[in-house]
Specification:
Blueprint (H helix, E strand, L loop, with lengths): L10 E7 L5 E7 L9 H4 L8 E5 L5 E5 L8 H13 L6 E5 L4 E4 L2 E4 L11 H28 L7 E3 L2 E3 L5 E3 H8 L29 H5 L15 E7 L6 E6 L1 H4 L4 E7 L15 E6 L2 H10 L1 E5 L8 H13 L6 E6 L2 H5 L4 E9 L11 E7 L2 E5 L5 H12 L6 E4 L14 H13 L3 E4 L2 H6 L7 E9 L5 E10 L30 E8 L14 H18 L4 H9 L4 E3 L5 E3 H14 L11 E9 L2 E12 L2 E12 L6 H21 L4 E2 L2 E2 L19 E5 L17 H13 L8 H8 L1
Parallel strand pairs: 4-5, 11-21, 19-20, 23-24, 29-32
Antiparallel strand pairs: 1-2, 2-3, 3-4, 6-7, 8-9, 9-10, 11-14, 12-15, 13-14, 16-24, 17-22, 18-19, 18-21, 22-23, 25-26, 27-28, 28-29, 30-31
């Protein structure tokens, strides 16, 4: 049961004995001695710890989950890594969601838990080594204590479900060993971790630790938290990010009993998007949220536009199309392999197409909100954030408090999708709390949430593929125009393309002559991280176009893809790493087999297929659809994923199914449009998420067992779902949908 975990020199282990007989173990940042820790975890041990586990005298085990859970299941999967190494009885484990771990290092923040980010697909690979060590250390200490009590060398003992077991069958529970284990001197070197053949929890299915609380409505979200004397604030934002107030009469709002104050807010032009107010705003502050909403309705308020007042998404699309159809040099040539121009002169066939995708909002179930309490020496916030460290940065800048004087607590989050990587709403809440000098809860109504977002940019793709005499794709020229999500965010101009296109995306590396160009669009519409960027937009266009090539050369689309992928090998990636073509082809074959792809030509229904790779993980979708008149029905969806070692198969299946449905909903119905600089959608009626009748009844998930280190999966199933759907629609209708949202375009073309 041996393995190796290397720890950073900047970390060291710490063991604390609580007076109640608890064993507390963690990996602590060197400057984190005075950092705050949740009381549930500490009990009576008043010291700051890093990634930790607590074993109580009654045998119960508490494990901290460091990353925010946006529905990705990390509050279950991360603690199970620790619990497996500890050989804990999972039925006796309680998971504690950790807030921000920050300590004061001479006025600079020292992050106790390392990088704390949720919903980006990086939680699992980032935590894999450290968390195993935390569990292994606790197990080692318990075995040393048991060796002393049993009179048996520790190397002859074994552990199982919260017990240390001697060769003669004698057993001691962890609770009976906790106090003694806490007094043992930790080892000089990290203890060995398990080899995979000894895993008992890793790779086994487990339900979400919060599942019962979620379905019974008991899960506390940020909106459920309270400070007894907190006021409520709602905002009316300017429709234009660069606009200003034309008229403001507060009198009717202030006349409402319970309305306390009306406050104006303005963005700080020196700060990056996501760190300051998103647009000029007027806030109504009242004793309750209902009264604040009434006050907002009573405001006599009008706005005048800035330079963005003439902007529209239609004009941006026209600009993009003109750029792609011109001979203009691209903003950035992202990749240029071989000689595309030379290959074109030898083309047996050319295939060309242009694909259009709309702007999208995040549309999280839980709107933006923040509860904040400030005083001279501290700040306490409940924030639904995907990045508590970035939220801390915003609070510290506005308050000037020392690092450890800012306590950011992160309850369960009602959806992130990248929106909560920005913290404009946190800045607004802090500014308003300062204005009234009282605790305050900020709440964005749905209309504000949809009309004032950091949107995913619309984009236009133009493709030109060169097919040789043997029906191989010998050349690929891809031109993309979009407004970068990185504009204004401190990224150099020669890297703005990175949020819009991946240098290694398919079919880069598989086509000898490959070119990828990006054209920058200038826009004042706020933009930011969005779930699956940049893979989702590119996969829809690329994998739909590969299907077009297969149709043009009269070939089975599965055969076209498998021939493009080629023989099993490692294809080097720019920047390091490689694509394992065997794993990519395998997920493609798995969904093809499960959907009965052999009948793709004879099927009355339409079958579509697509595949993609993301950061060492592989995904494929197969979709079956039927049509009666103008009614499209998604009959079946199959998705296969290969993420390396699977920590929690049940959690992974949930992530894959959820991401698939999210991608289908985005593709079917959704678009943000701007006219005269103003977003046109302000409710679910204008921005209709797919209903149950539009979506498949089930998503069948195939998980490929793997031996390598785990990779992320929070958005892995997003990229290939929409192109597989569009390809299936083509089979059943003979209509090639090159523009999203799909239903609107399909009905237009029928």
């Amino acid at each position: 049961m041996s393995g190796e975990v290397r720890l950073s020199r900047r970390r060291f282990l710490q063991v604390i004995a609580g007076t109640a007989g608890a064993l507390i173990v963690g990996i602590r940042a060197a400057s984190a001695a005075d950092a705050p820790v949740p009381l549930d975890m500490l009990g009576d041990a008043l010291y700051g710890l890093g990634l930790y586990v607590r074993v109580d005298a009654d045998g119960s085990v508490l494990i901290g989950a460091r990353d925010p859970d946006t529905g990705t299941g990390v509050a279950t999967s991360l603690p199970r890594i620790i619990a497996d190494e500890l050989d804990a009885d999972w039925q006796r484990v309680k998971v504690v969601q950790l807030g921000l771990g920050v300590a004061n290092g001479n006025g600079e923040p020292r992050w106790i838990y390392g990088q704390q980010v949720g919903g980006t697909g990086n939680s699992m690979p980032r935590a894999w080594r450290d968390l195993r060590f935390a569990g292994a250390l606790a197990r080692w200490l318990l075995m040393q204590a048991a060796a002393q009590q049993l009179g048996v060398p520790a190397n002859r003992l074994r552990t199982e479900k919260g017990l240390v077991i001697a060769p003669d069958g004698r057993r001691i529970g962890y609770g009976d060993l906790a106090s003694a284990a806490a007094k043992i001197t930790p080892p000089q070197n990290p203890p060995s971790v398990k080899t995979p053949d000894h895993y008992t929890l890793i790779g086994q299915p487990a339900g979400d630790v919060d599942a019962r609380a979620i379905v019974t409505g008991e899960t506390p979200y940020s909106l459920d938290q309270h400070f007894g004397d907190a006021l409520a604030a709602v905002l009316a934002h300017c429709p234009w990010p660069d606009g200003q107030i034309a008229e403001l009469d507060k009198s009717a709002a202030l006349a409402i009993k319970g309305v306390v104050q009306v406050v104006e807010l303005k963005p700080d032009p020196k700060l990056q998007p996501g760190q300051t107010v998103i647009a000029p705003a007027v806030a109504v502050i009242a004793e309750t949220t209902w009264l604040a909403l009434q006050g907002r309705r009573a405001l006599k308020l009008s706005w005048k536009p800035g330079a963005s007042g003439s902007e529209s998404t239609a004009a941006l699309e026209q600009q993009a199309t003109s750029l792609l159809n011109s001979d203009s040099a691209p903003t950035t040539r992202v990749r240029d392999d071989g000689d595309v121009d030379k290959a074109g002169r030898k083309a047996a066939r050319r295939v060309e197409a242009t694909y259009y995708q709309p702007w999208l909002a995040h549309a999280t179930s839980e709107p933006m909100n923040c509860l904040v309490r400030l005083d001279k020496n501290s700040a306490t916030l409940y924030v639904p954030t995907q990045s508590p460290q970035q939220a801390w940065t915003v609070v510290q800048r506005l308050t000037g408090l020392l690092p450890d004087q800012i306590d950011i607590r992160v309850p369960r989050i009602g959806g992130g999708y990248g929106r909560r990587l920005d913290h404009d709403y946190v800045a607004e809440a802090v500014l308003l709390a300062q204005a009234v000098d009282k605790p305050l809860r900020l709440f964005w109504p749905r209309d504000e949430d949809l009309t004032h977002d950091y949107y995913r940019s619309g984009c236009v793709h133009k493709f030109n593929a060169i097919v040789d005499g043997t029906r191989h794709i010998s050349g690929w020229n891809q031109r993309l125009a979009s407004a970068s999500a990185l504009t204004g965010r401190g990224v150099s101009s020669d890297r703005l393309w990175a949020s819009e296109v991946d240098v290694n995306q398919l079919p880069a590396g598989f086509v000898p002559n490959y070119r990828s160009d990006w054209f920058s669009l200038t826009s004042s519409i706020p933009r930011g991280p969005h779930r699956g960027m940049p893979h989702v937009t590119n996969a829809f266009a690329v994998d739909s176009f590969i299907d077009e090539i297969a149709h043009a050369i009269k070939e089975d689309p599965l055969d076209t893809r498998l021939r493009l992928i080629g023989e099993p090998r490692l294809v080097p990636l720019q920047g390091g790493g490689a694509i394992d073509t065997a794993r990519l082809a395998n997920v493609l074959k798995l969904v093809a087999d499960r959907i009965s792809w052999k009948d793709w030509l004879r099927s009355v229904n339409g079958l579509g297929i697509a595949c993609w790779h993301v950061d060492g993980a592989y995904v494929a979708h197969a979709v079956e659809v039927s049509m009666q008149g103008e009614q499209l029905t998604i009959q079946r969806v199959v998705c296969a994923v290969d993420v390396g070692r699977v920590i929690n198969p049940m959690g992974l299946e949930g992530q894959v199914a959820g991401a698939t449905l999210d991608a289908l909903s985005n593709a079917l119905n959704l678009a943000i449009t701007v006219k005269d600089g103003k977003v046109q959608q302000n409710s679910w009626k204008d921005y209709p998420l797919a209903n149950m009748a539009q979506l498949p009844r089930t998503v069948e998930v195939i998980t490929v067992p793997g031996e390598g280190d785990p990779t992320g999966a929070s958005f892995l199933a997003m990229p290939s779902a929409a192109p597989a759907l569009a390809n299936a629609v083509f089979r059943v209708s003979a209509v090639r949908v090159r523009r999203l949202p799909l239903m609107k375009e399909l009905l237009r073309l029928l």
